[in-house]
Task: structure prediction
Amino acid sequence: MSLGIDYSNGTANFDKKNGIHFGVISQHSVGEVWYDSAEADYGEAVCPECGNTVIDSVLYQSKEYGDIEDQELAKKDYYCNICMVSFWSDRCFPEEPLEWSYTGEGYILTDCLDTDIMVIKSPYYTFTGFCSPCVPGAGDLDNYAPEGVKTYCLDHSWFEKWAPYPIYKVEDDTFVPVPKEQK
Result:
């Protein structure tokens, strides 16, 4: 089995503290937990007219910014101090999220390549081939390779049955068996 090529030449998509590579796995490989757990990020609120970053209208009523002369402007969610116009939040954010992410239980996950999940931090690892060339330096969690690179992974709870690879704890390298309720 080919492990692929590290197109990053050891410069990207790994934890520089411990050498564990970030993992990439298809969203279709995991259970519904990704769709239930991931949070949408719409970015910063911006003025729909000039693109300037807008500030919550409530802040303009504070000492830091002073009062808005036209109090009707302060009744909406955001205010642009360039255009001197206020807007409801639905006009200040894109319709589609910029990204989906999850942080918790020792994980830092984000979406990548439209239909994949990148495991940036995890309490667990496995061994994989490289995710080449799509995400240089990252490990492909859909390509378990016993002789591959140490790669952050998702634990069994992220899958409908169990993970398609063996799992080890980062803290002490112990093997993590499939929980009895998931067998």
About this structure: The two ends are 28 Å apart (CA to CA). The mean pLDDT is 89.
